[in-house]
């Protein structure tokens, strides 16, 4: 069992440089680049302007990554944003950040990504008809349960799963980029918007701001490794390298992937197509279109694993700070995994679908009780 001289039990240090890079890249690259990378294009209206914004968003994320690399080496504590806000502003603001992150944002993210995994897994089975809603929900729940078991069983196993699915994502993107350059080699750039990339550009502040908002959302996840910094073997050396390298790789991948899309799919089609990569595969590979659907499913499966892997560490740190039930800081006696959050994640993620309903029900009850004390000129006796 791991521990320090003061008797504090801690998780094993299993994350090296390669594993750290895979955690970040696997968390940053989700289904968005494969499904519908339209946010920036819809905002600035042209191919050239959208590519500039993809690069600019990547560089902007890199600046934030530099800051987190410094914070991670200065404050050697897992939990990322929560730990840094707790250290700088005290327990109240730290609690607010933790509550939003682990009760609202992360479980909802896990649920959405799991549903996307289910839809793209079922797409080859139901290519020409709507997918059964119950099948999508059950497969999404099964995805969460499988990843829950992996994270409860072993941190080493969960990072290996992250490694494998990150390589799958990169392989899919490399396939898209290579076929895109092959299309350019065949002269396809002459009949695509790449020939006049800045035609119709919208350089207004509103368009650029909206484009940045969409782009930065696609780059989210570069700070996920900071959630696990206590499990890194050599964080002072590996964290800055992993964060910077991952941001550069993802920036290049996103930009070149968009160039590849424009060689096959028209701008107007990209704006209205719900699954750009699948449409592109259908045109290039004909009967092999389902391959890209499988890659999107693998990408989302890895995304769920990355989100759950890092979220459990925020719960763990909050438990140590007594801002969550102390039991959340308990580790499995043999596996040294924060199994209590991981085992409850299947309950938290689906519950976000009903959060609005619970709010309405609770609000109705409170409002009904408040009316008891109001004077009304007209009352109906029940």
What does this structure look like?
This protein has 382 residues and is an all-alpha fold. It has one domain (17-371): Amino acid/polyamine transporter I, CATH 1.20.1740.10. Helix content is 69%, strand content 0%. It has helices at residues 17-28, 32-35, 39-44, 47-74, 81-89, 91-122, 133-153, 155-185, 205-218, 235-262, 267-272, 276-285, 290-320, 339-351, 355-371. The protein is globular, with a radius of gyration of 23 Å. The termini are far apart. Residues 351-361 and 376-380 have low confidence and may be disordered.
The level of helicity is 55-70%
Count helical runs: 15
Q: CATH-wise, what's the superfamily?
A: Amino acid/polyamine transporter I
Model regions low in confidence, pLDDT < 50 over at least 5 residues: 351-361, 376-380
- In the CATH hierarchy, what is the class? Mainly Alpha
- Would you list the SSEs in sequence order as H and E? HHHHHHHHHHHHHHH
Largest sheet: none
Share in β-strands: under 5%
Overall pLDDT confidence: 79
CATH topology: Amino acid/polyamine transporter I
User: Can you name the CATH architecture?
Assistant: Up-down Bundle
Radius of gyration: 23 Å
